Amino acid sequence: xxxxxxxxxxxxxxxxxxxxxxxxxxxxxxxxxxxxxxxxxxxxxxxxxxxxxxxxxxxxxxxxxxxxxxxxxxxxxxxxxxxxxxxxxxxxxxxxxxxxxxxxxxxxxxxxxxxxxxxxxxxxxxxxxxxxxxxxxxxxxxxxxxxxxxxxxxxxxxxxxxxxxxxxxxxxxxxxxxxxxxxxxxxxxxxxxxxxxxxxxxxxxxxxxxxxxxxxxxxxxxxxxxxxxxxxxxxxxxxxxxxxxxxxxxxx
Amino acid sequence: xxxxxxxxxxxxxxxxxxxxxxxxxxxxxxxxxxxxxxxxxxxxxxxxxxxxxxxxxxxxxxxxxxxxxxxxxxxxxxxxxxxxxxxxxxxxxxxxxxxxxxxxxxxxxxxxxxxxxxxxxxxxxxxxxxxxxxxxxxxxxxxxxxxxxxxxxxxxxxxxxxxxxxxxxxxxxxxxxxxxxxxxxxxxxxxxxxxxxxxxxxxxxxxxxxxxxxxxxxxxxxxxxxxxxxxxxxxxxxxxxxxxxxxxxxxxxxxxxxxxxxxxxxxxxxxxxxxxxxxxxxxxxxxxxxxxxxxxxxxxxxxxxxxxxxxxxxxxxxxxxxxxxxxxxxxxxxxxxxxxxxxxxxxxxxxxxxxxxxxxxxxxxxxxxxxxxxxxxxxxxxxxxxxxxxxxxxxxxxxxx
Amino acid sequence: xxxxxxxxxxxxxxxxxxxxxxxxxxxxxxxxxxxxxxxxxxxxxxxxxxxxxxxxxxxxxxxxxxxxxxxxxxxxxxxxxxxxxxxxxxxxxxxxxxxxxxxxxxxxxxxxxxxxxxxxxxxxxxxxxxxxxxxxxxxxxxxxxxxxxxxxxxxxxxxxxxxxxxxxxxxxxxxxxxxxxxxxxxxxxxxxxxxxxxxxxxxxxxxxxxxxxxxxxxxxxxxxxxxxxxxxxxxxxxxxxxxxxxxxxxxxxxxxxxxxxxxxxxxxxxxxxxxxxxxxxxxxxxxxxxxxxxxxxxxxxxxxxxxxxx
Lengths: 252, 401, 310
What we know:
Chain A is of the alpha/beta class. Chain A has helices at 52-60, 82-87, 105-117, 119-132, 148-160, 178-192, 204-210, 228-233, 235-242, and strands at residues 13-24, 27-37, 41-45, 67-72, 75-76, 90-93, 166-170, 196-201, 214-218, 221-226. Chain C is built from 12 helices and 4 strands.
């Protein structure tokens, strides 16, 4: 299926997930295969408990998968420490806004930029990023004083200031007003110009605004994949969101 | 580094001017006591560096302090008779403390031992070192002329030593090429060099710690304190940063230990005792764990309080004609005062944790900041006047007390 | 090595394990169930010993009566401390650690104020039995039995009683337990009291073989913590397995000299050499070193490692 912003030539996979599983005790939270090509803006949707956040954590190294492999930029990064994955160019915004509360807004961004660009250049880029996420006036405030939406943006800024190749965003618009969601969409489009982006969302309106390739997760597995129109026409997906998911429960 | 604000400059002046004036304004005893408070302050600051900085509670700072002291003592005793200086002892003490901190830090942080366990391991380390140095009383525990001496502490022995002074750990002594004779940093009637050395090291270490916290290391450490997983996901190997900060703070503690051995010319296993470890934590807690200055403030306050309580021993004799309940009360109060250091420390630990989380330095500084004009125009002149007056009368030998 | 030496070494290992179990059980319970580090645990141990001392010396009760009394007295003390201090600090593990350290110093100070700083002994009437050429105190066998009894008691309590069920529920998920009608603050209080009482029992049972002095808790607390840390998250299994492993190491290193290193200097009589191993002190050093290396390999402790492998 043609994707609008795909670069010319054959698409090059940047992330290949094969047979990835994660068990909590006896409970299987994730079991899936997924390929994302360079330059994509991929949306990952699914009801609560579909395993999206767990999936992200196993990708970024915050959690070790039970089995399966993750290949990122052609390298097997399964079970790597989080910092090594990050150095290879994957950055993540967690679901629960986890900015560094007792550091200033600028220091948060500075820290995120510093490991790649060093002290001075990192600071310069951090100040640029303040502009992009609209927090210039709050630069010297402690992050803990920011509003919820501002924290989300700060985290998106932190996830992108280090010029990553792949950005994972876990519910970037949670708790935002409609206006804020719109500017977040603009921000995402801008980020997507230079990086591959995977977004986890609940909010179908937001997904529609982005309107790119969508993967639906259900009970830890890939349930459907396609363009937004396909997904909206898909009976099963509608049922999942309307609570009839049990009918389509994936056999274990 | 950022420029100092007006309140910060004022605070620095209010602290440094009196400290610089002390050797002229007071008897050597005061300089001696202040020197040891500052040494404890450096130790406490090394704890706030790792605790306030990275959120890692180390009960082991006194272990590094003690190792620094013992290493300085052992090398210094051997060196002073042969070379009449202690250059290598200073180096050796620092190396020993740094090495110990690095090894312990490696196992703790690269072993991914959780923070609570890390605290326990540092505490166990201190206690085991205590047991070790207590058990070194035998004749076989000797390096050259330096005997470990078990509970009695380290001293030197040997035929070459002619007078008793040679049996003690030497003060910091330098003899650089071009100097006609070795220079000893002592604190007595003639010289306050030892005092100024301690003051200079305190200021230097404070500046170093501030610089560290303002550098990348400090930013990452503070990030780790807030949310370690987040910092790791930004690409930082958090283990390394924790390890580095832990080792540096261990080295600073070791430096304080060397100064301590050189100041008192003595070290015994008490430096590894739980009491000393506790007092270090108490200094930091009382002074404020989020500020580097807190350790110094806490050390001075607790040091003054306990030495004051130690001096007043009420009811040295209980008259025979007192009523039994009165006698019991007097005996009780005497015993309580005798146990005062422990009771004060315990009460401060519980009290600060329950009621005064930030310690006293940050509120004091906020007060100064709010009244910074008054500080400049009233407090500072008063302090200068008082110390000028003290210095003048002390030099003329006219001081009443 | 002759048979009686093997026998006596085996008994010494058993004794080391016993002491570690006695020291660590209460601590492991409090740490494992409440996730707090109680640094006053050593003083609960001391308080147990002083209860026995008071009962025997001043109240002229028989020794066994004092020993039975001690756990209850100390449990009451523990519950009081939990209500007054620790309750306000749940969710702040480091502050709990510091506050209980303060309590520890206060208790040492208060006990010293009351009893003085002298070491006192408690007489007891058991003798020695012979193992070949060696003689061995009978009382140690009593201690081992008591330690085994305490472990069994704790196991039964948590496995088969209503209290045990509620306590396990509280530990597994405090919010859920409290939603299910369990009074969780009360469970924490009782658990803390139980842990304190176990330390009191350990202090009481060990009082006759050690000098009773206000600072005695400090001597044992490090070993207790090492045992708990090495044991890992599962209370009974962890304590028993880590006490066994560490006890073997401590007993062997305490008994046998591994090698000697010479030191340079003047000592009388020469030669100057230090025997590594062969004293109680080296047993403790070995304990610490082993624990640190083990934790480098198994950060979750022994029981955590086993749980992972399941």
